[in-house]
């Protein structure tokens, strides 16, 4: 019996590995991918990047323009995340098992969140491109919808995980629904909520760069403009600025996380 | 002494075939210290939570101060709960808030929605919370965050939160089950003291028979959702324990004999 248990587990693991191998092989054959050539081309790509993809003096003179559009992108990401977080909190409270009003309202709010979450930010920006055109608003709303869906889900889980027991205690004292939210649910889950918001801001800054290429705004647009006009030096300047910005933002948010935990 | 609480033929059904309580009858007088003992899953916790309607009983009548609480509306329920304090096994505090904030949560049942959300407590209420904390020996911990306290201290905060409600009755659900022996003694002494000096009725769910016998005025023995024994601690002998605990008996008998010897 016991022997059988371990033998079966081992067979399951072997089967799983074999299955993965088969899927990989089939994919390689179906796409005509040459594994060896794929890897040997990496040094060549690096060689090209070192030869062309570096900022020169002319690119440096474009720095103010680049920084300006970086700031635009940053602000759009932060603004959309914060507004999305406010809406997400309301929906999370309504949809959570601990605090939810139960029944239809919970179901509706969870369904809306699922719908928004499952449409990717890139898909949102293409949809919104039709109604808003190439405009900052398009990027803003795309990020807003994507963050809203994701944050609602994350908030719901944080709330459920954290505040179950103290909610019961406050209910037993006769406290009203909104008092319980204000004094138990929010204080217990606030570090997790803030942590999710910071994570979302970081992700959105990365996403915003890509969306900018689609919507023709912000630093993403600047990158594609330089790149398409074969101005690789300026394009590399943009990349460096983005990397720096992301490193700074990440270390700031790590610091904030450490303080609030 | 007047009757504070009365159970008449109370039963509770979970789903189609799980019967947590069946035809429970008992009364509790004002100022009594009552312990509910019984094996795990006997329905002790359900019984306790039916009193402040954290769980709704499915049949029978529960009278609190001569009014049936089964039919209370939202407002009546709020009023009922504000008069009954509750203490939990896992303390159920908001760990990230300070001791004093947690204690003041006990006043939320008396607040309107707006006052409650904004946490507007009167000077009187804050002073009362301070006095209670002082009596429970937590004077130095008042501004500490609750996650910095020991288990025994957390439970005292839980008791303070219940006392600041000015309750007529205290419901304690396994208050010492997660505590070490020393902290358990401190907590039980406080509960006994609250009952004797403040005249607050205390109902405690307990796992430890010897503790129940030592501190209570009356024992309720529960098994499989029915009250098997209802009487003074002195009436609990080997025979009664066998009926209450069934096959789990041996571990509890050891405790009883230890106590008789000591």
Distance between the termini of chain B: 33 Å
Query: Which strand order spans the largest sheet of chain B, edge to edge or round the barrel?
Result: 6-7-8-3-9-10
Domain unit count of chain A? 2
- State the end-to-end distance of chain A: 47 Å
Calculate the mean pLDDT score of chain B and round it.
Answer: 91
Sum up the overall morphology of chain A in one term: globular
Question: How many β-strand runs of chain A?
Answer: 0
Number of DSSP helical runs of chain A: 11
Largest sheet of chain A: none
Q: Main sheet of chain B? A: 6 strands, mixed
Level-2 CATH architecture of the largest domain in chain B:
3-Layer(aba) Sandwich
Radius of gyration of chain B equals: 19 Å
What do we call the CATH topology of the largest domain in chain B?
Rossmann fold
Outline the low-pLDDT stretches of chain A: none
- What is the CATH class name of the largest domain in chain B? Alpha Beta
Secondary structure blueprint with pairings:
The complex is a heterodimer of chains A (261) and B (262).
Chain A (H helix, E strand, L loop, with lengths): L1 H29 L4 H18 L4 H5 L1 H33 L7 H16 L2 H12 L3 H27 L1 H9 L4 H39 L2 H11 L3 H29 L1
Helix pairs in contact in A: 4-5, 4-7, 4-9, 4-10, 4-11, 5-7, 6-7, 6-9, 7-9, 8-9, 9-10, 9-11, 10-11
Chain B lengths: L2 E12 L3 E12 L3 E5 L6 H8 L7 E6 L2 E2 L5 H9 L1 E4 L11 H6 L8 H6 L4 H13 L15 H13 L5 E5 L7 H18 L2 E6 L2 H7 L2 E6 L2 E6 L6 H8 L3 H13 L1
Parallel strand pairs in B: 3-8, 3-9, 6-7, 7-8
Antiparallel strand pairs in B: 1-2, 1-4, 4-5, 9-10
